[in-house]
## 1
Amino acid sequence: MEHVVAAAVIDAHGIVTGWSEGARLLTGHAAEEAVGRAAVDLLVEELPPLPARAWTRPALVRHRDGQHVTLTVTACPVLGPDGEPAGWALTAERPSGPEPTLAERAFQQASMAMSVFDPHQRYLRLNEVACKVMGVSEDVLLGRSFQDTVQEAEHSRGFNWHLRHVAETGRPIRYESWTGAPSLNREHAWTTEMWPVREPSGEVVGVALAAFDSTEQYLARQRLALLNEAAASIGTTLDIVRTTEEVVDLLVPRFADFVSVDLLDWVLGADEPPPVPDGEVVLRRVAHGSAHEGTPEAAVRLGETDVHPPFSPPARALRDGHAVRIQAGEPDFMSWLAERNALAPEGRRFRSGVHSVIAVPLRARGTTLGVLVGVRIAHPDDYEADDAVFAEELASRAAVCIDNARRFARERTTALTLQHSLLPRGLPGQVAVEVAHRYLPSGSTAGIGGDWFDVIPLSGSRVALVVGDVVGHGIPSTATMGRLCMAVRTLADVDLPPDELLTHLDDLVTHLAAYDDAGEDVAELGATCLYAVYDPVSRHLTLAAAGHPAPAVVLPDGTAQLVRMTPGPPLGVGGLPFEAVELELPEGAVVALYTDGLIEDRDRDVDRATGELCSALTAPAASLDALCDTVLKAVLPEEPGDDVALLLARTRALGADQVAAWDVEPDPAQVAATRQAATEQLTAWGLEEAAFVTELVVSELVTNAIRYGAPPIRLRLIRDRSLICEVSDGSSTSPHLRRAHAFDEGGRGLLLVAQLTQRWGSRQTDRGKTIWAEQSLEPG
């Protein structure tokens, strides 16, 4: 560029009165634009007062296009007639050497990579950061096409496409990429802005860009995205192992090339947490995964224990309570790697590239559960402080999920144990019915419910069949089930009719609810129960229900139907009656009692489900056990939402040859005749060995009925698996044992009966009471 000198004249008032062609070339202002204007309008900053002598100094002039131009200005005063300055004559020129403008300095010193390309993607300008990224100086790149300066790669082709698109369309573009650069040893995240450079006419003469290295922001977003993903993907089930597997699946390979989750043994059991040891730590491998199929880096197999020495990252993390990072070259790293290689030498070649390890304790609710270990092999970056913060946050969330699964497993195990201990394990053998049962706990996360069933032997070879359901799930419902189960057994021992038994049970539930804390849900309220009594002598089935589904009956001819009955209100409602219904069943009929979990579900029609139940009950089956399985398979959905209890009872009958009865006149003289009749019946049954005890029992019970009871009096002998002696009379007064004194003439009869028989008792009847006693007929 040729050397240009500007000249201008300014009067005493600072107004431009003369303007040369050189001034136009340097400032862009023509003479007609400058003459008549104040000189300060052409300056960027105001000059101090001009001295009355010649001077030279730099001045920052505003160019017509808005840029600032630095000029060296020399001024000489123009003297008037009185010798005083009447103005100034100025000359100006560019400083010696190219002085960069402020915009040029800003371009060169920008903290981001900035470049300018012509419409054909050739370099026109680069700033210092762009030259560092490219790894060469500006003069090496100027005039060369971008594609000629980089390796052929997908990200290079994408960058060139954006340059060409901006040049062709004239529209700016902003995009983000994850790519490498010639001078960088790893990939970076870049946020790039490209915009067209235009002539005043609007023609696109170039493309400018600014690329910001947003790697830290990108990684921070990635970590945040992982945390958000963890909230949705970890803890989807209440299973400890599956939860740890979800942690591994989330972190590999985005955060680590190998991840393992090891837990303390007590977490997988029912023990209380012991203190974390200060020395070596024994952990059990629960889950691991890697970028390599089969996880060859693992030094421990799934399910095995591993002893971690005190210097190892897992032991330090458990001991210190925070994340521990070690890198290649550190003494602890070398010791840890050598220990891993010695433990599993077959995986040595897969660990050869390990350069960074992080171990994070899994802590929830102040309790240490285990440790999470991440290893980087192919991942180029070592673990940094931000990674440790992320890992601790993720481990904290994962630990809560693991602890939730542990607590659920422990509560479920406790509830199952409690429930199984309360349910009958082996039902007693008897003549009245043949029974089979199934109990299926719910597989839902709600926990164990309060379904229960029971088979209770009663006097006179009768049997009680019970099934019930408690509202809710978990240990409270199971405990409530236990209370109701024991209450029913106690009331059954009193030998109450079904409707009276449910009335007493309802009163009990109401009293329990009244004693519980106000404001808390009482599990007994809303519980249901069905109580049935079958008598094999009369073949009558008497039953009553408290809010419970009616049972189904399958007759020997193959027909099945629900029992027509009026179910009373659920237990705890109070004030409403329970109605009993009585059926006469042929021998071989099957009675099916069940809880509502078998037929009720959100997506099922109850009428259709009960129809399926009746149909399944008529299916051919080799045994009652097989019929149970058939029913469950046919009626239950794939994933039942509630517990299911099913009790099947096939009725039997005692024939006339097994029962003998006599009416007894209320005369003491009849005792001997009655005793003789009983002895003859035993002889007919071939039970002569039981005759002596039976004579004593008959004498005592008949004598008491005549002396203290009321007509009618009746004796009945039943030959079952035991010999049962029953004496009924019209009085409702129940006998009781008492201790006779030395000189008392009586009072020892019932004590003698209790000593000679297996068990004895009394029950109320519609016409009075029945006193009974049983003798075992088993040999020995």
## 2
Amino acid sequence: MTFQPGAVRVGIDVGGTFTDAVAVDARTFELLGQVKVPTSHDHTDGVAHGILEALEKLRADLGLSADDVSFLAHGTTQATNALLEGDVATVGIAGVGTGYDAFATKRLRAFGKMELAPGRKLPVRFVAVRDPARAGAAVDELVRAGAEVVVAVEPFSVDDPGGEDAVAAAARERGVLATATHEITGLYGLTKRARTAVLNAGIMPRMVSTADLVESSVRRAGITAALMVVRGDGGVMSLAEMRRRPLLTALSGPAAGVAGALMAERLSEGVFLETGGTSTDISVVRRGRVLVRHAHLGGHETYLPALDVRTVGIGGGSLIRFSGRAITEVGPRSAHIAGLPYACFAPAAVWSGAKLITISPRPGDPADYVAIETADGTRYALTLTCAANALGVVPADSYAYANEESSQAALQPLATALGLSVQEAARAVLRQAVKPVRAVVDQLVQEYRLDHPTLVGGGGGAAAVTPFLGAETGHDWRIAAHAEVISPLGAALALVRESVERIVPSPSNADILATRAQAEAAVVAQGADPAGVEVDVTVDPQRNLIRAVATGATELRTKDRAASLDACAVHAAVARSIGVSPAEVRELATTPQYDVFGASKRRRFGRSVMHLRVVDGEGVIRLHSKSVVVETADAGTAPARLAALADQHTRYGDGGARIPAVWLLVGPKIADLSGVLDGDQLLALAGAELKTRADDEPVVLILEDRG
């Protein structure tokens, strides 16, 4: 196979058992190849060895040269596992300040009571730094006390970081790893900010060592492409940034899969279910964005941004529990835990004379999990995947597909014990299994007010859950292409991401624009193409919080509208997502990159509402909205027109003025300004988006009534 230089993106996912790697066409996102190697936990170089081994195997299989690779990203559970297992470095806290500041930082010694795992508390040392000029002596004292990494803490360092910078610089001059709380977040809240920084420091030595090994190995292989690591919020960051803030990779296990759903599957509004052998991670994509919140670690809230993921103990390998009369539960134990192969993947001939038995998967577990024992004494696990195949709901091209005849024969002993047909027994198993999954999906759909969501299944066990759940709920559903490698696919396709948060009482337009510029500059510094960077800004006046989230690709990947796009298929997809007939859909606006469609739909009680869908050049719905006004302008006149429309559609009530939510279609970008609640701030951000555009460039203004 021959490639153009820089034509391939590589994604690698380091799992607990296997390390998966994929090669993806950088232009079309087509999967070119995939490999699997054992994760090298016990190697001298740790997981870095497995990453290199997977990369070299992938290159050999496809004939990739070093110059063919333009981008390489890997996801890893290393940070998460270190925190869950309490396997962290000893952290030295240098509390900077005098008076009340000294009292406040001294209380942080209590972090030593934080239990990361049963019997594993966070190892902490503390020293007070009353004079930053003596920071070096404080660092020396911490190192003598056993500290492997230093955290500089000062109560108001987000306003004046001088004291923290002095401590961090003194540590780095001595070759000691260090971090400062203001380097982690710009938010107030000393305890939470310091807790986040201390956890970041605890995993820093191991993560920096891994980053060094990965980088040196990849460079020795001749690859000079950008090296990235998956973050817990679904984006990627550079290795240099990971060395500074390794905590951002924690909880990134589900993040790569969601990135795959966003990019490879072009999911813009829906629920992503990543199903493994034991559990299903459930997350939401709304208006083309992942939902992110501050994560809890060690039982406490942090300032770590991570996906809002709900985990349910149901997977493709989940075992069935049987009371003797009825199916009582499916899971939480799995075939992997029991050490048994899936029955549905055995040939049908082995089931002659087979019988139903009950087992305890692990010592101390209830002895009501069922298995099948063949005539020769071999035992097989009767799993959720077996039931799904027996019912015939697993698509033939999916990773979890098994022979239906064999699956039904395997399920027959259970069906006999239940007094049901095989199909009735299979349906009973699936209904019991998806109950907790459906409860979470229903909660997320309601909580995030999703409009006609699509369920997308990923992971090796996707087909055991998603098809039946879709049928039960009535939601559209699909299994992601190459679902079994959705995580490394997501790593290969993920966007560079940076989040900047600041607390600014009564923020001015200058404050908001400065925060936006900081986020944009951060992703550009990590290799994102400036032409394609999108920055979403949210201003929360009640908390005086400004949040700017910037995303961008390392190359510009947005395409003009494809000439071969099937207009009828696009209309049908838009109509299905709104819940109307294709004949009711009409085009509202168009640009070289996007088409805007809409249809009126009557509410159950009340007036008709315009529902809008923005479709990109490949026919993918990128934005859902309703109660909207759409108008086309050009970049030169758009600011004045937006000001007039925003004023016209502002609602007034007891709570004050409510300006509309606004999006701008500007070149390849969908500029999301919906997080701004003040009219002047809205116009300032719109100006920042439009200032680099030619006056005659078309711009589409989209306004949504927040009521």
## 3
Amino acid sequence: MAAVADATTAVAPLRKRISRPMVVAAILVGWLVLFAVLRGRQTLTLAAADLTDLHRWLNDVNDSIGANRNSNPVFVYGFNEIRLVIDNLVTFVQSLISQPADGRPVPQIGWLGVVGLTGYVSWAVGNWRVALLAVAGFTFFGLQGLWQESMDTLALTLSAVIVALLIGIPLGVWAGLSDRFNRIMTPFLDFMQTMPTFVYLAPLTLIFLIGGASAVITTVIYAAPPAIRITAHAIRSVPATTVEAADSMGTTRSQQLLKVLLPMSKRTVVMGVNQTIMAALAMVTIAALIDAPGLGKTVVQALQSLDVGTAFNAGLAIVVMAIVLDRVTTAASVREEAARRAGHRFTAWRRPLLIAGGVAAAVLVYLSHTYVWAAEFPGQGTVGSHIASAADTATTWLQDHLSGLTNAFRNAISYGLLNPFQTVLTDSPWWLVGAVLAGLGAALGGWRAAVIAGVCVGLLVGTGVWSDAMTTLASTVVATALVMLLGVVFGVWMGRSALVDRLIRPTLDAAQVMPPFVYLVPFLALFGATRFTAIVAAVVYGAPVAIKIIADGVRNVPETTVEAATSAGCNTWQIITKVQLPMARSALTLATNQGLIYVLSMVVVGGLVGAGALGYDVVAGFSQGELYGKGLAAGLAIVLLGVMFDRITQAAARRTRA
């Protein structure tokens, strides 16, 4: 027994000395050694035009579904009916504000009526400042020469948001009231929010074809999870004492919901509506790849032809629409509190002013419905042509004068970091990469993460696009490393300084509002159509969320701990590296998780501007029928990468908190 005790006490210090960083380092060193010996063997390389048996089978499935779409009962009485209902909704909304209908040369409500209604609704749910912003923003669409494209985008967004909220809010209420249903829904919501936007397109076009209706269905599936999750959180956040008080008064379950839970959670639910609208707008623009009308189609066509000016003009319109919709819904969530601060005098005047504003908006709607001058936006959109011309001029200047700097930066990252890492991934035997990923999963997240990584690797091999998946993995990891570098630098700065936080956070909030498409445009001007454009855009897209998470983590380090380190003689660098960052490890891990998911989404979208790999496979699958199966397999590969990243980093975050 004494010998056993001695052995146990001897092993304990050894376990303490072998830390997770040491295990990770050992795995990576072992990988490099085996790579040097086995380079180029069993790499599962597949040429761009080659197909596997799985890809051919998926092509056959696509052809079979197309041939039997109007005879198979599942489609005749199921999917086709769903598509018809959504198509009727989209057509109705488009006929109101964007497309001619019922023999009219213009929509039912012209530009003057839309601007008037937008201003009135923004004022009614928010305040006069956001109303002015909304009116100015919508007028700007017309000045850009993009009125109809903007209204098409708005029509698809509104259609998707209506359906998403009709589904999401009741499910969210149910999840908020029922622990069992919440446990059932949580894995599905996690999975849906992990998937990059690109992934939704291919399988849904297989079922619902392409067009506006399919774009709305896709958008509903993507945008509903925030509404469900935030509504459930709002219901669960109502104080238990309030619910108990309602119980003691003899209220029924439905009375509690309608009179207590929903009113007290209204502000949070409106925030969920905000997130749903932002997600819908982002998805609607990307859905241009499946022939959705609107600003997204203009951006896609411009990116494919490398027309930076047109892409910038349309991208600017998307940004303006995102800002307007975000500001209006954000103002709506805080309107009652703002009204209380303004006092009863404001409340007394508000109702008569709203009635007068409603009458004015109705008059503008009537004018735009009756007269052509009020229906068609005047002018030729010369502001937009000037913006596009200025963007082209700026692009030419940047390429002429900064090409040396941009090329040096691109080459430094590409040749110093990206290319070597990509070579190690793509030229290693597939089973070696799989073993490394499973080992890293075990070291960082435990055996469950290792099992998930192993399963994902096996399925990735089965998709037949292993080499492209490794190329995407290389770009994603490099971009995430850059995101974390920015996140640590700016997050620590913001976490340590309230002034810096107040100055930088609004910019980060605005950056998170913009749909991912928009990020490609300026970097296309700087770096041309290369994979590096996608990587830089992914870094800029993923950095805001990482910076904010790290800033909050650093700020939450107890002030007494920092003061104790200061009194012990630690300088600023020592406080950051020895106290604040170690104590914010869970925030760092969470930032890595979110950064990876954002980056993967953006790297894949970069397939439109020369990023290649899985993003290109998906895009090619839409444009070339014989590659549809390969594009669908590439979409599955993207999902597998996302699930693997998410599971490993979430497990690592849980172990860090423990």
## 4
Amino acid sequence: MPRTKAVLRPRLIERLNEGLERKLTLVSASAGFGKTTLVGQWAVGCDRAVAWLSLDERDNDSTRFFLHLIAAVQSIAESVGKSAFAAFESSQSPQIESILTVLLNEISALQFKIVLVLDDYHLIDSEQIDDALLFLLEHLPPQMHLVIATRENPQLPLGRLRARGHLTELRDTDLRFTPKEAAAFLHQAIGLDLSADEMAALESRTEGWIAGLQLAALSMQGREDIPVFIRAFSGDNRYIVDYLAEEVLQRQPEPIRRFLLQTSILDRLHGPLCDAVTGQAEGNVRLSDLEKGNYFIVPLDDTRQWYRYHHLFADVLYAHLKADQPDQIDSLHRRASIWYERNGSADDAIRHALAAKDFTRAAVLIELACPTMAKLRQEATMLRWLKALPDELVRLRPVLSVVYAGALLTLGKSEGVEERLRDAESGLESTADLHARPDIHSASAEKVFADEAEYRRLPGTIAMYRSALALMTGNIIDAMKYARLVLSLMPKDAYLKRGAASALLGLTSWTSGSLDEAYRLFADGMADVQQGGYISDAIGGTNALADIRIVQGRLRQALSLYERGLQLSIEHGNPVMRGTADMLVGMGEIHRERNDLQTAMQLLLKSEEQGGHTGFPQYRYRWHVAMARVCEAQGDLQSALDLLDDAERFYVGDLFPNVRPVAAMKTKVLIAQGKLSEAFEWARAHGLTARDQLSYLREFEHITLARLLLARYQSDREYSFLHEAMGLLERLRQAAEEGERTGNAIEIMIVTALALQMKGDTPAALGPLERALTLAEPEGYFRIFVDEGQPMEVLLGAASKKGLSPKEFVRKLLAAFGRTKPAANHSLSEPLSERERDVLRLLRTELSGPDIARELTVSLNTLRTHTKNIYDKLGVNNRRAAVRRSEELDLL
């Protein structure tokens, strides 16, 4: 971590020490106010292990940021972070919040307290990183304290943190040197004792600005006319920096001055690197001398191997370099690029090649780095590199053109993809020519590619991206055509791309409603992906396979898939790999359908805990949908609607077919609430009528429309609504049965039975009801009947009298109606304890579960026990319902 010989500042050290009792210390001030120096001094004596992460613009890539963050923590706690690193390495789409959960759990097991310092956080401009940092703060274990040093406020809810007493702040006004501190600094820096008037004048000129004082100290070294110098010392901060830097530079011997200027192109300084860039020797000695001389140089590690210049000082040095040696800048960057390439840092090698405008070299380095970058899901960085290259150069290199297309698709952007793929095709030679040419490594060939393996596989890669683009834009025919082409072109050992192609074929079949074929193809694809070592992606694919089985009405197989997926993640040492939080949600849905609401709630809470409030699970909207359905099951329709509103906000489309749109689920709740005008507005907005041509993609919407028509019939007693609904339901049943979509068919038969009951023909209603019961019972369906409420209870009563099969199932369903009616609004049979009242008060706030546990000084398990008792006594199953129920009963 940075260390300095600058004067210690006890008043600020004390403020920082006091801040250790809170979650976050924010040191936010303008450039040159000594933020890094102050925090570095404090860190040395704070009696806690300190992990220090110095940030730069490249850390806006979220994967890079968190890999560096984990490495920083491991520097002080080797036992922490191994699972998190494994998750990044095994996943193409690492779930940041899930990985942070693992990291925080490991930190919470430490027997000592730690501090994590994020220096120069103003260089981060990533909403994903800001959100993840908020997650980290909300779940910060008591063993950990976070310090952020920045020139501008981070995108965090500082007002909320301040109000809750979680924040300590140091600003410009706090960091300004007092006259006493300024005098102590000048005495220490140059052994100069100024008079009170001289010190006051200098402090007034600099306004306590530390960089200005430091530059003044360097400029006054060796002067005899110090009073004259101080009187002439004036101007704004930037003028002072330019003026004093020139004074400092002019006083240096030429070798040192040349060293300072030439190394100003580097954002990190290392002896051998500086030697390579400057052509001089003894870089380590020079850096050590600069540190001893207090020349705006900051150590980046405890072993004094890596340094950086103060940012302002580096800016001034670089300005002088441009003025004095403009023709040397490209050459200096090229030397840095070569050194970094030889020492295994592709990122830095590429950055300096781009700065040197050596675009051919940069293109080669980018092409060779992309396979690793893609595996780490750093497409944003790859895209930034590619955009920095001249467009005509990218177009001439087919591998880079395809990488460009793939990065766009991965980031959810379809515009420009087809153009990049055409560029790649125009630069490709035929496969036959490629194999026929022995001179493939000739100079002419090297101009168009650097990675021969990727070049040879380009036809298949192009087809793969064309298939994904077609599926994204709804062109199923082309998606299938290109996916099949991938399989014909790619070799057997190209597991990831062959697996992706099979999965794409599965998705096209799923979108078309051919579910058996969809399952087979997608499962084959995930097997290839797993064989290729992409375990996390294979686990994530389990959710798609389970979704298909659920539509087919095979709940048992779906649950088995979820369980196998979770087991696979445990076997590979990371129980929170990508997709595991979603699997918990899926399992919760199945247990809710089986009327095991307690297990469903436990699974959903576990998913929430695993993923965190800022990004759980990977498909965040599904958690809210599942929780809404639990609320429906307990009769809390308003909470269900609120949760579905949240789900609609969080929904982000992808390649998976959206066969149960959230808007349709909301409409189903609105119908149950009797808000038919709002429900009909949904139907009008989506252009739905009973005469529509049916498709699998809109099947759930049309089932919901049938429910709406029946509700309108009940309201207006206009027979045309009933007639339209009956006709629509019959067409839907035929389509679902032909497509073997048993899950949808069961719901359609249930709604048909209720429609016939409305018509007054109960004997006819028992026919579709019996078929639905027969299909549902073996798979454990339950709520699909009970959620229909009193009309279904009456119909099941008639079925029981008629002795409909399966008889035991009918009996269990009837028994459930008495247990699921909403609780009456009366006093509690068993009062809440004082501790439970404390918990309930905090449940009404925005605090997360871990925050509440810390507020009450109890373990998370103890909090869960109190919460479960509260839910039982109130007759609810979730936090929102508990708050509403407590307000109804005026408990607090």
